[in-house]
Amino acid sequence: MTKHYLILFLFLLQNFFSYSQTTFKLNTEIEKLKTDNALKHATWSICVMSLKNDNIISEYNSNVSLVPASTLKIVTTGTALSMLGSNFKFETKLQYDGVLDSITGTLKGNLYIIGGGDPTLDSEYFKDPKDSLTTTDKWAALIKSKGIKKINGAVIGDASVFEDNIIPSQWIWSDIGNYFGAGACGLTYHDNKYSLYLKSGEAGSKTIITKIKPVIEDLQIINSVTANGKTDSAFIYGAPYSFYRTVEGTIPANKNNYEVEGSIPDPALFCAQSLTLSLKNIGINVSEKATTVRQLKETNKYISTNKNSLFTHYSPSLEKIVYWTNLKSLNLYAEHLLKYIAYKKNGIGTEMEGTQIITAFWKKKGVDVSGFYMYDGSGLSRANIITTKTQTQILRLMAKDKNFNSFYNSLPVAGKSGSLSNMCEGTFAENNMCAKSGYITLARGYAGYVKNKKGEMLCFSLLANNYECTPTEMKNKLEKLLVAISDINN
Question: By CB count within 10 A, which of 13, 95, 101, 328 is most buried?
Answer without folding.
Answer: 95
